[in-house]
Amino acid sequence: FHQNCLVEGLIQRHNYIYAVCSKTNFSDFLDSYLLGAKLSDSAPTETDLVEPGDHGGFKHPTMEIQEITTLDDLGVPNGMEVDEFGHVYIADSGTGTIFQIDFDSPTQVNRITPWAEKISPFVNGLEWVGDELYFTGFRTGTLKSILAKVQRNPDGSAGEVTILMERFATVLDDIAHFEGGIIVTDYVKGTLLFWRDGHVVYETESDTFFAPTAVLPGKAPMFDEDAFLVTEKGIIFNGNPRIGNQLGLFYPGLPLN
Length: 257
What we know:
By secondary structure, the chain is an all-beta fold. The protein is 0% helix and 50% strand.
């Protein structure tokens, strides 16, 4: 599935991968969709081996990606997250609202409802830590990008919002929970920063990355646990592989725990 659809958020829920995308062609510009694909029930075998250098030594993974539903009420769906109850959350950068999706089955949506309405202009990254949903966005009426969190009430609704940090004239993008803090990508500054206990305790040098977007701590056995996986988007709508457009392993070189 591609059809000129710009994929932004990506999340795993049980044995399915879900993504959100928005069309980029003129006739249906920004029409948005929820996509889904079932993961394989088995790991690659020796019969899947191909020549080294071709997709990392294995055949290119194939999944039957299907359109689950249109996202008519969303403006620009972006970051995604899933909670322990199986609810999927989408940050809508267009409306500043976090939406919640409830499923009847892995490929059948029951309902899509606003969970936190107009919580932040250009709301972006999402990460659950206990009963708190961390997010990035902007402070209303300013050019200050923020890292914040919203408390989940006992009834499951969105509660109090707390702004944790703000930064002028940049875009704080994706986030990931790590060692009691939050790893954040700064899209404009080209850095990876580690926020914990009210402070930025570590940040890479400016332009370490070219427009970093997603970040995830490495997990064994596939990745080194001392590294972070970082995607660099580069220039949007520009497919030049020399400018971003890559996934890499970054080693901070110092203990963060």
